[in-house]
Structures are given as C-alpha cells and as structure tokens.
Amino acid sequence: xxxxxxxxxxxxxxxAAMLALAAGGVAAEDYPLRPVRLIIGFPPGGAxxxxxxxxxxxxxxxxxxxxxxxxxxxxxxxxxxxxxxxATPDGYNLHLGTLGALVISPTITKVAYDPLKxxxxxxxAVQLQNMFIVHPTVAAKSITELIALAKQKPGALNYASxxxxxxxxxxxxxxxxxxxxxxxHIPYKGGGPALTDLVAGHVPVFVAVISTGVPPVKxxxxxxxxxxxxxxxxxLPDVPTVAETPGLKGYEASxxxxxxxxADTPKPVxxxxxxxxxxxxxxxxxxxxxxxxxxxxxxxxxxxxxxYIKSEMAKWDxxxxxxxxxxx
Length: 328
Hints:
The protein is an alpha/beta fold. The chain folds into two domains: 188 residues, D-Maltodextrin-Binding Protein, domain 2 (3-Layer(aba) Sandwich); 113 residues, D-Maltodextrin-Binding Protein, domain 2, CATH 3.40.190.10. 41% of the residues lie in helices and 19% in strands. Helix 2 crosses helix 9. The radius of gyration is 20 Å and the shape is globular.
C-alpha cells in the first residue's frame, strides 16, 4: 500500500506533519504520551524477538514510556511488516525490520507493501551472522563432512530456516550452489520453532541466526559447523567460517535488523527516535548483552539506512536470480 497526496510544497509538507502529530493528539516536543508498539514479524524465541526484547526496555527508558512488543509471526516476517506499513503514522507504531522481510521476500514474491515507499527509516540497529548447526546424531562435524553427506544421498538431506526467503534460506541456497549439492529446504515460521525441531531431531540441519544457534551449541544440544560471515564470531571463536572450507572461498551471507515506522510518520518524531535509539545501541549493557550472542550493534542516520536497504536489494537480487528461487 502506498499513500498518495496532492500537496507537494515544503510548507504544505510541514503542515501535513503538524496535522499528523495533531491527529495523534501530541506535539513533537511532548512525544510520546503513551506506550509505543514495536511490531515484530516473528514469534518469541527467535533472533528478531531477542534483539527487540533487549532493546525495548532501554528505549522505553529514554522515551519515558513503555515499548510494548507485538509479535505477528508468519511468512518470513512479511505479515508483521505489512501490519506495520498499514499502521497509523503517529510515532506509536514501530517495526524492527529484517533483511528477509524488507529485501529478500519482496524480491522472490509479491508482498502487500513497498519496502521503500511504505516505511520511514529510523536507523540500522544490528548486524549478525548466520550459522550452520546440526543435531548431534548427524554424521557431519564440519562443512566438508556435511557436503560429503549430502552427496551420498542427493535430495535426501533437509535443512531448516526461519522461513521462505529468510537470510538462513538464502545462506543455504548460496551454500548449495557453491558446494554443488542438493539439500531440501524446510521453511518454519521463525527461528524458535525451527530450533525446537532441530533439538528434537525432527530436522537434521538448521541455518540459524547466530543468536539462536549459540545457546544450544554451548549447551551441547547442537553442533556448530560454521558461521556464514566474512570472519569468525567473537561468540564462538573456535567455529570456522564457511569460506574457510576448501572450495568455498568467498562465501558470505550475513544478516541485519533495523528500526522503521510507517511512511509519513512526522520527521520530528523520526529524529527523536533516531537520537534515542542511537543512545540505546551505544549503551554498554545493551551492546554487551547482544555481543554475547554474536550480535553487533550498528547505528545510522535514516538516510544511511535507506541507502543500505537499496544496496542490499541489488546484492541479493543477483543471488536469488542465480539460485532461481521461486515462491513455494
């Protein structure tokens, strides 16, 4: 959905912003006067939810209002993104957007929102790697052994991800292409459900966001084969990158989340949220809590975040075309 207006002058735009604030019942200098909703496109237990629950309380302190998390899971985060895109643009509806919902899914299939036109960007929030983990009974303790296992029975080995078009899905498809193997993708409605099935032995391989994969690996309930970034993660320094595997040099598939609001959210509110989120991301307690899970905090201006989303669209479009991905 895209909103259309006939007024186009700078003065008219300023008036429109003032009217939007008035409609929300608050002036820019008084924002916020009530709790703020943060829409998450995934269920509790996954990486997006984890990041939100670490950031939200601290952001609430700076805003002096509670930030309430609203989990709307499904379709690789696009259900939550659509809800956020259609929400009232008054500063009381925010969205922790993901690479999957903002870039990958819109490239693979039609979604009911425009990632660039239907949102006002606030700031990049975090960057994180994915990782290949397996159930302890799987006869592969390295990426080399996983490739050999897949080649023994082409098409018989399944791998899970947090959803169709998720970063884990794309990381898996890029891996299949470069390793020249055939594995079957099993999409879940989030990292939490996928992890539950991996630990239970219902699916052998999971390309997980690193924050989801670290706890079961450290608890001995899963085995880490490799991380998908350009360098090893401080959270698991002994786990190699996929690119360290012979024949897979140059492999890289990282992930990120950023804060957005519905399009036409007044600029004074966006500016306030950008300043407050920057302070939250720089705070040692938030930074350390996320880094322990392999997640790095990243701040940006709204314009920088918009430019980054555009660059990611160009990058992943090439990967999706090369893998010939289609909606399931």
